[in-house]
Amino acid sequence: MKNFESRRERIIDVLKNSDRPLNIDEIAALIGLNPRESKSLYEDLRHAAKTLYRKSKGREYIAMIPPRCINCGFVFKNLNKLRKPSKCPKCKSERIIPPSFMYVEE
Ligand SMILES: [Zn+2]
After folding, report:
1. pTM of the model
2. Distance CA 15, CA 92 (A)
3. C-alpha distances in angstroms, 79 versus 1, 36, 40, 95?
């Protein structure tokens, strides 16, 4: 049984130990989560990032590289919810690069 707290800690751990940004599927693979469940990680990631920022008083945080449309290059800068958008608002393509995440320490 995994509890949510340890899952969030592991998300931060894998990001800390990575030298490049990771998307949600890569994080899922690294913490041993079924890829089908990887979407559920967005919520955990959001909480984990908040906690990290608060505990470190803003010295450590998780930066997001926003999703981007492969077809036209549109960047989803204003995501109201952490997720992989399903469709590009500009060209309607569904080929979207998911957001990726990086641990940053100042
Ligand atoms: Zn597009």
Report:
1. 0.87
2. 31
3. 32, 22, 17, 17
Amino acid at 44: D
Phi, psi for 68 (deg, rounded to 5): -140, 145
Per residue in 28-75, pLDDT (tens digit) is 999 999 888 888 899 999 999 999 999 999 999 999 999 999 999 999
Element counts in the chain: helices (H) and strands (E): 3, 5
Quickly name the fold that domain 4-105 has: Arc Repressor Mutant, subunit A (1.10.10)
- The protein residues having their C-beta less than 5 angstroms from ligand 1 (an ion) are 69, 71-72, 74, 88, 90-91, 93
One-letter amino acid for residue 104 of the chain: V
91 CA → ligand 1 middle, Å: 4
Query: Which positions ≥6 away from 6 have C-beta within 8 Å?
Result: none
The domains of the chain are located at: 4-105
